[in-house]
Amino acid sequence: MNNFSRRKFLSSVALTGAAAALLPEVASTQSLLGVVRPTVVISSGNGLAAVDKAMRMIEQGSDALDAVIAGVNLVEDDPNDMTVGYGGLPNEDGIVELDASVMHGPTHRAGAVASLRNIKNPSLVAKMVMERTDHVLLVGEGALQFAKMHGFKEEDLLTEESRNMWVKWKEHLSTEDDYLPPHSIDDKNIGSKFHEVMHTNGTINCLGKDRNGNISGVTTTSGLAYKIPGRVGDSPIIGAGLYVDNEVGGAGSTGRGEANLTCCSSVLIVEFMRQGKSPEEACFMACKRIVEYTKMKRLLTDDGKPKFNVTFYAINKRGEHGCVSLFSGGSYCLHDGKQNKKFDPAYLYKRS
Ligand code: GLY
Prior knowledge:
Blueprint: H1 3-12, H2 17-22, E1 40-44, H3 48-59, H4 64-77, E2 97-104, E3 109-117, H5 122-132, E4 137-139, H6 140-149, H7 160-172, H8 194-198, E5 204-209, E6 215-221, E7 242-245, E8 249-255, H9 257-261, H10 265-274, H11 279-293, E9 310-316, E10 321-327, E11 332-335, E12 340-343, E13 346-349
Parallel strand pairs: 3-4, 10-13
Antiparallel strand pairs: 1-5, 1-11, 2-3, 2-6, 5-6, 7-8, 8-9, 9-10, 11-12
Helix pairs in contact: 3-4, 10-11
The structure holds glycine.
């Protein structure tokens, strides 16, 4: 965090415990970006192409929502991103279930789908829910029927790579079940805790402010890898994985959805910005709230830090941005109208 924003942050937040002790570790890129631009697009670290596409559309006069959705469609279509859309890691039964939400600032409308199978662009279905129903959220079979009604084509979203990852996970899940990984006649220790490191929460969140000053956002994901079928994270929940108030700003998230669902961090970040906090300060406050509200010992290390990560992204009406994670590492993408670059998020804790 630069000196100015760090000073403002310290004066505006009562930091306690480990978070306060670790503030000197906090890093920021805001100051590197110079003057504030009228247009801005931010995304999670897997969104460099998405941000580029969205900004090109915005510079050509597109509405921010159309632009950010077109951007994340590139990631949904990309078989190499195993956390979003086609090629996303499946549930425990090997079936890909996708979640997405969109929110349009100027009309304050939203749409979302959850546990959607066989449709690779859930963000487009979410937009269709917003535009062509009286509802905000459709799930499961109903969401699929609705998508098909509007001409979305069903397809198998599992790639050879994601299917192989799922099989590997299943074969290493337990030494007590009947699935075995490839092994030799001499192997004694078949199976392992492989699944503990394989439970990933990748996602893309993308927020944009267009040339009319309007703000919109989208969050889209295949959710937690190898999840219980029907598990829904924060991404399709308006107020948790995404929230936009056109008069204030927008916020979104990636990471452990369960931690965010019980804090409704995106709406919280927007409300902090409404109270005058910068996007970065607001994201810090949301991170701190997650730490404070994580009380289950199974989710905490011995020194009281969460065992998971969450990252928040935010922009405000002035085109300022913030991105803060619980832990260092990772990246986010920002196009300020001049350049498209990856940056390191600010963070509460340095990853050891
Ligand atoms: N944040 C994405 C998920 O937990 O599903």
